[in-house]
């Protein structure tokens, strides 16, 4: 395919043209260039992709997309565009045959709940005998085939290639998490969505977004990319605002909630540590559901999944059957069932709001103390550290502050900023930087009837300290510690 023919609706200027026109691969990273590649130069936040153009050419790139002319390169086509990332998304969609137009694309955005909603929808659509694809934080799925996920929402060439594979494998519904980074960095530009889901918006990623408003505006983009309908959590204040701003949109929206008037509403909620039961009404539903995933927030996630399935005309019976029989989502309110003496829950809460929701739910059923073990990731939003400390100090009886993925940061400094929050509310705590030791300590002090929450890493199988990534799985580490303490 000729490069010029892939640049639909993109203004461009041909700076130089070579006779070699058959692009066989798209690369945005010089380290991944193979002969026949188009290399797209991205001006990033860490480095400038234009610097790697020569390396890419040495490796066999035959064309460049640039935002500024790269001097002294010969024998390759060079095309200038205003925004390389946008052009890359358009090129990738064209190169892989616009796969999104052959799939029912469902995009889920929001601070918390995206992964859970996609897993619920996977179960529902499979119950309705649709071949399903999933793109998100834990793994990508093409039907039964599980593929490794590097990012919640992949960069556009990786994303479009994945969609093409789904089309080839006769997938019919693609359910994907659409992160705010991806909307901001044009990873899903040039993609057609049927349905957009808004779960909620609380504070996160303030290292990337200059303001909460910028975070909201990034998420909002998804709701202008949909063709069939949008589905919005009306109990969330940003969700409420979104409904007001979409009033005149050509694409209809539906609302869900527990507190406010909504198209799809849950009531009579009863919870324990095994799950949550509720009644659901609206959008053709009038059912009682017993969901084997605990927490009030799970009701919101279920409503998002139910509303989407109804828009896609799945029957209420299939929806109820799928939700009632689903296994949990890895690392999301996951109980270690092997331990009977006290409760241990592994959860991916890595924002103050998520931690508060999980702890509130645990408080609702725990008989005795709640002991929380958590830390915060390095090279990520620093402002959430004291806030998470405050929440843990307030809602737990005892906290063990530890490391999450410190990455390039000094672990002790991360722990100290969490401590500031706990001290603000006079919470009881200790600090144990080593996560394995922290989990062991929690298990050694737990008594009958207590609940230990191990938060922040959920399904993750590794821990990154400095530049080293080692195997680490909260679930396995907790089991090992329980064995040592003779409580297994
Ligand atoms: C903040 C963010 O998303 N940054 C992403 C972004 O980085 P960037 O724009 O700063 O790029 P850069 O590192 O400066 O590099 C510029 C260009 O030079 C290229 N390069 C660089 C080095 C080299 O030797 N050769 C080369 O060609 C790079 O491939 C890139 O094209 O583009 C890079 C290339 O795709 C990504 O690797 C990088 O993801 C970083 C590593 C990341 O951690 N992202 C996370 C925060 C993220 O995206 N998270 C979201 C949401 C998570 C959630 O809450 O669920 C996600 O969707 O996963
Ligand atoms: N609807 C919800 N409202 C508030 N908190 C939630 C909700 N659903 C899940 N959580 C909390 O957020 C954590 C992450 O959930 P999930 O992985 O489904 O969200 P996500 O949006 O995919 O997160 P990420 O942005 O990290 O991919 C859960 O472990 C739980 O603590
Ligand atoms: N998707 C989130 C996950 C955070 C999980 C936490 N364990 C961490 O490593 O910070 C992020 O990249 O910000
Ligand atoms: Mg996720």
UniProtKB/TrEMBL annotation:
GO terms for biological process: cell division; cell wall organization; peptidoglycan biosynthetic process; regulation of cell shape. Its main location: cytoplasm. A motif (Meso-diaminopimelate recognition motif) lies at residues 404-407. It is found in: Cytoplasm. The modification N6-carboxylysine is found at residue 219. Residues 22-96 form the Mur ligase N-terminal catalytic domain. It catalyses: UDP-N-acetyl-alpha-D-muramoyl-L-alanyl-D-glutamate + meso-2,6-diaminopimelate + ATP = UDP-N-acetyl-alpha-D-muramoyl-L-alanyl-gamma-D-glutamyl-meso-2,6-diaminopimelate + ADP + phosphate + H(+). Carboxylation is probably crucial for Mg(2+) binding and, consequently, for the gamma-phosphate positioning of ATP. GO terms for cellular component: cytoplasm. The keyword Coiled coil does not apply. Keywords: ATP-binding, Cell cycle, Cell division, Cell shape, Cell wall biogenesis/degradation, Cytoplasm, Ligase, Magnesium, Nucleotide-binding, Peptidoglycan synthesis. Residues 331-458 form the Mur ligase C-terminal domain. Belongs to the MurCDEF family. MurE subfamily. NCBIfam families: murE (TIGR01085), PRK00139.1-2 (NF001124), PRK00139.1-4 (NF001126). Catalyzes the addition of meso-diaminopimelic acid to the nucleotide precursor UDP-N-acetylmuramoyl-L-alanyl-D-glutamate (UMAG) in the biosynthesis of bacterial cell-wall peptidoglycan. This is UDP-N-acetylmuramoyl-L-alanyl-D-glutamate--2,6-diaminopimelate ligase. It comes from Tindallia californiensis. The gene is murE.
């Amino acid at each position: 395919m000729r490069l010029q023919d892939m640049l639909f609706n993109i203004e461009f200027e041909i700076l130089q043209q070579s006779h070699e026109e058959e692009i066989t691969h798209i690369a945005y990273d010089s380290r991944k260039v193979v002969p026949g590649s188009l290399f797209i130069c991205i001006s990033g936040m860490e480095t400038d992709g234009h610097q790697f153009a020569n390396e890419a050419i040495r490796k066999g790139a035959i064309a460049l997309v640039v935002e500024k002319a790269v001097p002294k390169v010969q024998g390759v086509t060079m095309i200038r565009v205003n925004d390389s990332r946008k052009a890359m998304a358009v090129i990738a969609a064209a190169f892989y045959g616009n796969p999104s137009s052959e799939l029912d694309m469902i995009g889920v955005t929001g601070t918390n709940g995206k992964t859970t909603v996609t897993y619920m929808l996977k179960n529902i659509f499979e119950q309705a005998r649709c071949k399903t694809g999933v793109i998100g934080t834990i793994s990508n799925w093409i039907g039964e085939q599980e593929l490794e996920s590097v990012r919640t929402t992949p960069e556009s060439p990786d994303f479009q290639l994945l969609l093409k594979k789904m089309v080839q494998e006769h997938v019919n519904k693609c359910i994907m998490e659409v992160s705010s980074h991806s909307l901001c960095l044009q990873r899903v530009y040039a993609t057609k969505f049927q349905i957009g889901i808004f779960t909620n918006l609380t504070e996160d990623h303030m290292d990337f977004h200059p303001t909460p408003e910028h975070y909201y505006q990034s998420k909002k983009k998804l709701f202008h990319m949909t063709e069939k309908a949008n589905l919005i959590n009306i109990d969330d204040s940003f969700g409420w605002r979104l409904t007001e701003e979409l009033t005149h949109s050509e694409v209809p929206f539906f609302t869900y909630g527990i507190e406010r008037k909504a198209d799809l509403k849950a009531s009579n909620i009863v919870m324990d540590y095994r799950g949550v039961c509720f009644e659901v009404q609206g959008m053709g539903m009038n059912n009682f559901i017993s969901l084997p995933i605990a927490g009030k927030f799970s009701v919101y996630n279920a409503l998002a999944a139910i509303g989407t399935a109804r828009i896609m005309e799945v029957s209420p019976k299939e929806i109820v059957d799928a939700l009632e029989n689903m296994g949990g989502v890895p690392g999301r309110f996951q109980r270690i069932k092997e331990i009977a003496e006290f409760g241990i829950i592994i959860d991916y809460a890595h924002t103050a709001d998520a931690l508060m929701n999980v702890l509130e739910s645990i408080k609702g059923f725990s008989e005795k103390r709640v002991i929380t073990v958590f830390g915060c990731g390095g090279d990520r939003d620093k402002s959430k550290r004291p806030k998470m400390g405050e929440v843990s100090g307030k809602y737990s009886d005892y906290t063990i502050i530890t490391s999450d993925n410190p990455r390039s940061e000094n672990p002790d400094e991360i722990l100290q900023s969490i401590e500031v929050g706990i001290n603000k509310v006079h919470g009881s705590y200790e600090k144990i930087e080593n996560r394995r030791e922290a989990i062991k300590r929690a298990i050694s002090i737990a008594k009958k009837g207590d609940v230990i929450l191990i938060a922040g890493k959920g399904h993750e199988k590794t821990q990154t300290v400095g530049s080293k990534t080692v195997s680490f799985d909260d679930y396995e580490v907790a089991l090992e510690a329980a064995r040592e303490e003779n409580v297994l």
